[in-house]
Write a structure and sequence with these properties.
By secondary structure, the chain is mainly alpha-helical. It is built from 17 helices and nine strands. Strands 1-7-6-5 form a four-stranded antiparallel β-sheet.
């Protein structure tokens, strides 16, 4: 059998094998003439590039030593009868041949969206919880594999039929993910498969993932750009990363989504969770269980977010009310102070015109008897002014000492910096905790 065109060789995640078209691409070097690769891919298998061995994407079952007349689907059912893919259970499998119904439209959308993401976007890298560097693209996706020796250790089960040396791949930043000849970059997480003896790992790395910091540092900017500009693969159709409303609604027709709805989950939660998964990874869930966990995780995150926002609003309301009460009390005290002063001035005038009366009632004059009350009022005014000043200081940025605080860091919840001072930071100014997210509270001046 003649070697086929290898087509798209990039992948961002092993779950790409849920696409029958991706599984079919792994058979470009298949050499068994009596067994149709289309039938193997349709039955859920991808080529391991070891003899005639193939593996199921769902149950991980391996079948080999094929004989003429063998049917892939029948062999799959015979050896792995509990596999979800062939037992009628809802899975994330995306068939290559699409029907004209709603399911066919959805599978076509998922296929097109996957190839768009692989061609035009960077792999999604989940930040480590203890990562100091939270900015995208600055740190490696697998820092423990930052040496050629550590990456080379991942090739212990490298297929012998693959005519590409593990040393060359490891040197170019790749490690084996343990599936056929699939490798990923330890830094950018870019994946490549279907290797041949004519390939140059450095060249392919730069051509297919020109944004990779590791490749740019090793080869230099100009060389990477030259490889990228001379690439021969034709670009796919560009589109928005976000699914539009019609596409998001179409997602609900997927068997997994329908199963979750029949289990009692709201359509809104199911649609939001699965659409979010597709937009983040370019892939749908493998199984109902995985989708169920995804919905639960999202609802828990939303609940925590709403609770935190409610707490922040409550804190702000209390702060605003304290400011309002302090201001009103201060205004009332100043009004009382003014009235008392006017009253005393009137009394002074009366005393000046009635000196004898004033001298006769010196000990019991209303003016003097009110002096302790006046002192008490003055003290309350001073205390209130001090409290207002203290509150105003709390609302001033601790960094620039000029602007009003405007950003709440999460998860530490410190509200200590203005927008300008908070923007460039990735750790809290006060406690040095890593910033996972930010909130902008509503601070009223009234």
């Amino acid at each position: 059998m003649a070697t086929e065109s290898r087509g798209e060789r990039r992948f961002h995640h092993p779950s790409a094998l849920l696409h029958e078209s991706v599984r079919r691409a792994t058979f470009s070097s298949w050499k068994i003439p009596f067994l149709d690769p289309d039938e193997l891919a349709d039955a859920g298998f991808f080529y391991l590039r070891t003899a005639d061995h193939v593996q199921c994407v769902m149950c991980q079952g391996i079948v080999g030593y094929w004989d003429p007349g063998d049917k892939p689907l029948q062999e799959h059912q015979k050896h792995f009868p509990n596999c979800q893919l062939i037992s009628g259970v809802c899975t994330g499998n995306i068939p290559k041949n699409k029907a004209e119904d709603q399911h066919g439209q959805l599978f076509k959308l998922l296929d097109e969206y996957y190839y768009f993401r692989v061609h035009f976007t960077k792999p999604y890298i989940k930040m480590q919880s203890d990562s100091v560097n939270m900015l995208e693209g600055l740190g490696p996706s697998r820092p423990e594999l930052n040496t050629t020796e550590s990456r080379l250790c991942s090739f212990k089960r490298w297929p012998k039929d693959v005519d590409m040396k593990p040393e060359a791949l490891a040197e170019a930043g790749f490690y084996s993910i343990g599936i056929s000849d699939w490798v990923q970059c330890f830094h950018c997480a870019g994946g490549i498969f279907n290797w041949s003896s004519h390939d140059n790992p450095w060249h392919d790395h730069a051509r297919l993932y020109p944004h990779c910091t590791f490749v740019r540092m090793q080869l230099g900017e100009e060389k990477v750009i030259s490889f990228w500009e001379n690439k021969t693969d034709a670009p796919g159709n560009q589109r928005s990363l976000k699914l539009n409303s019609e596409e998001a609604e179409l997602v609900l027709s997927h068997p997994i989504a329908q199963r979750l709805v029949t289990m009692g989950l709201s359509k809104r939660s199911v649609r939001s969770a699965i659409v979010g998964r597709i937009e983040k990874h370019g892939l749908i869930c493998r199984s109902v269980t995985e989708a169920l966990e995804l919905v639960f995780d999202q609802e828990e995150e939303l609940r925590k977010k709403e609770l935190k926002e409610m707490e922040e609003r409550k804190k702000q309301e209390i702060l605003n009310q304290k400011q309002k009460d302090s201001q009103e009390k201060l205004e009332n005290m100043e009004s009382v102070d003014l009235q008392q002063t006017n009253s005393n001035l009137h009394k002074d005038s009366t005393i000046s015109h009635s000196e004898e009366v004033a001298e006769g009632s010196h000990d019991g004059s209303p003016f003097l008897s009110s002096s302790p009350e006046m002192n008490k009022l003055f003290q309350e005014v001073q205390d209130l002014r001090a409290k207002v000043t203290q509150v105003e200081k709390l609302l001033v940025c601790r960094c620039c000492q000029k602007e009003q605080v405007a950003v709440v860091f999460q998860p530490c919840s410190h509200l200590h910096l203005c927008t300008s001072c908070a923007r460039p930071r990735d750790t809290c100014y006060t406690c040095n905790a890593v910033i996972r997210a930010t909130l902008k509270p509503i601070i009223s001046n009234k």
